[in-house]
Amino acid sequence: MKRCLRLAFTVSCVAVCALVVLAVLLPAALGLQRYVITGASMTGTIDRGSVVYARLVPVSSLRSGDVITFVPPGLGSPVTHRIIGVSVKEGQRVFRTRGDANPVADPWAVTFPRPVLARYAFHVPYVGYLLALLSVRWVRMVLIGLPAVVIAVSLLWSLWRAAGEEVRAQEGASVRVQAATTPTDGE
Question: Which of 101, 113, 115, 129 could form a disulfide with 49 if both were Cys (CB 3.0 to 4.6 A apart)?
């Protein structure tokens, strides 16, 4: 039973580490940015709670139909919407966007001053909920503290068992020595 529990604990730790590597570290190493979808404007294509992975591409390569992540004028946080039109005005490319679940286009026409922008590569459903949960301080503390407590208790338990076995071994040796030195009735 103890072996099964240890194996389950080890497998779950490895699985969590693998999830972190696959969801966070590997995409970053491949040059991908990640965004958590918190709104419903792309529902049906990219649902709320998904994590979108995007690659920075030159703005000049963006076309109608591309899904991009950008900060629209007047908003402080990024949105992920589809480009529905590209025009040129005064020598600059102007983009019209719309969320796939929205009935009308966004109220803004956007130009991008930076030469690169995040274009959708792929998404992973529901992982955004986990990342959002990890942004809560007490959840992070529990996820860090709980394994630390389990390791500390396991270590103390092992030391206590080893000390108990040592005491029992010394008591057994003492009893054997006493038995060997105690005179028998026939002497």
Answer: 129
For residues 58 and 104, membership in a common domain is answered with yes
Which pTM does this prediction carry? 0.68
Please, is 84 exposed, middle or buried when counting C-beta atoms within 10 Å of its C-beta (0-12, 13-18, 19+)?
middle
User: Which DSSP symbol is given to 111?
Assistant: -
Q: Which residues of 137-169 are buried (b: 16+ CB within 10 A; e: fewer)?
A: eeeeeeeeeeeeeeeeeeeeeeeeeeeeeeeee
CATH of the domain at 89: 2.10.109.10
What does the pLDDT look like over 109-135, one tens digit per residue? 999 989 999 999 999 999 888 888 878
